[in-house]
Design a protein that fits this description.
about 25% strand, Uridine Diphospho-n-acetylenolpyruvylglucosamine Reductase, domain 3, Vanillyl-alcohol Oxidase, Chain A, domain 3, eight-stranded antiparallel sheet
Length: about 400
């Protein structure tokens, strides 16, 4: 921890880069708001030489995800909030990392386009934060992951070097694909300052449905039929409520195609009732991230999603469990109850996860829970450490986020 005199000197040095009105001193840290990529590069160059820990800030909706040491310098991206260009004919856009997700989508909507992603807390979450945490929701079923949507980035490496990767067109194979590496890196390898996205037309014929059952495994045959069908299914999720489970389905098909009727017949054939549902069902996972909840993200194979959703409910009544399971095998689970009980359950879930494709991460936790956020296998951990050493040998960017001292 830096002394008061050291903090004062650091604050003075950083003020000379951003201007004193964009530098704010805390008790043990300084927050600066650079105006552009070059100022961020200057701040990182300073921090790298002084070996000062740095963390980027956006809307702070996911700042607490994972672990990590408290940095000496916070770099706020609030001033990097512009949409730089939107060549709508090419279905691409370039946006600064501090722009909120909802602001980006509203601008793109003027040409009836959007980035086909539904992250948490769109009004506050920034483009940079969404990329850093690789956040996505049920739209992933139709459009793929965030790594499929980002086609280029401007980065500032830990030593202050400005780098560009990818490009502004969808078909681009030049150079190393650092976009995929940076997406989900939690700001440990570089600070993203701009991103280029591929866009999609806004769906014109959305209809939302929900199917109720006592157990998630009851949905397995129907879910397999929907996946194998020609239905224009945009989103699929299994949602746990107090009354049981719901399979939520979003269709995007012209009314004359009668896809709703086909889905209704499939549902009846399996002994279920298809009901219209409000659009709010796709925001249900935001409720999981209440301040009093410990939230896990669990990845399983898609074929195991129903069985695993049922398994999660066996944790009741020892603790309170809420879950949203995507059809692609991603589960987000909110746990409430005794910290000791929750800690024991997390350890047991990890011990039972013998399949190599099952991973369990603790996104949101409190100080009473003593479990590592990311349980990473040894071969993968060694590779991650090697990459971190190459990009950030002084270990200044979000140290400790994935593993101790790195």
């Amino acid at each position: 921890m830096n002394s008061a005199d050291e903090i004062s000197q650091i604050a003075e040095d950083l003020s000379s880069i951003t201007g004193p009105e964009y530098s704010r001193r805390g008790i043990n840290d300084i927050t600066v708001s650079p105006a552009d990529t070059r100022q961020i590069a200057s701040v990182l160059d300073f921090a790298y030489k002084k070996r000062l820990a740095v963390s980027a800030q956006g809307g702070e909706t996911k700042q607490g995800w994972g672990q990590g040491v408290r940095p000496s310098i916070y770099i706020s991206l609030a001033r990097l909030n512009r949409i730089i260009e939107h060549p709508w004919q090419d279905l691409t856009c370039t946006v600064q990392a501090g722009c909120t997700w909802s602001s980006l989508q509203r601008t793109l909507m003027l040409h009836r386009q959007f980035v086909a992603l539904d992250p948490l807390f769109e009004d506050r979450a920034t483009v940079g934060g969404v990329l850093a945490t690789n956040d996505s929701g049920a739209l992933r079923h139709r459009y793929g992951s965030l790594r499929d949507l980002v086609i280029g980035m401007t980065l500032v490496l830990p030593d202050g070097t400005i780098a560009k990767t990818g490009g502004k067109v969808v078909k681009n194979v030049a150079g190393y694909d650092l976009c995929k590496l940076m997406t989900g890196s939690f700001g440990t390898l570089a600070i993203i300052t701009e991103a280029n996205f591929r866009l999609h037309p806004i769906p014109q014929h959305i209809r939302d449905f929900s199917i109720a059952a006592s157990h998630a495994s009851d949905f397995a045959p129907l879910l397999a039929m929907i996946r194998a069908s020609h239905l224009l299914t945009q989103s699929l999720q299994i949602r746990r409520s107090d009354s049981g489970f719901h399979l939520d389905v979003r269709l995007n098909a012209h009314p004359e195609s009668h896809h709703d009727g086909i889905l209704s017949q499939m549902t009846r054939d399996e002994g279920f009732v298809l009901e219209e549902a409000p659009e709010s069902i796709w925001k249900a996972r935001e409720i999981l991230f209440a301040p009093d909840a410990i939230v896990l993200r669990i990845a399983t194979l898609p074929v195991d999603v129903c069985e695993y959703a049922d398994k999660l409910q066996l944790l009741r009544p020892v603790i309170q469990v809420q879950s949203i399971s995507q059809a692609n095998g991603l589960h987000e689970v909110a746990l409430r109850g005794s910290s000791n009980e929750i800690e024991a359950i997390i350890r047991q879930l990890r011990a039972d996860a013998t399949h190599p494709h099952t991973t369990i991460s603790v996104l949101q936790q409190n100080r009473d829970i003593e479990v590592v956020a990311f349980d990473i296998s040894s071969p993968v951990l060694s590779l991650m450490k090697a990459v971190k050493d190459q990009f950030d040998p002084n270990c200044i960017l979000n140290p400790g986020k994935f593993f101790a001292e790195a």
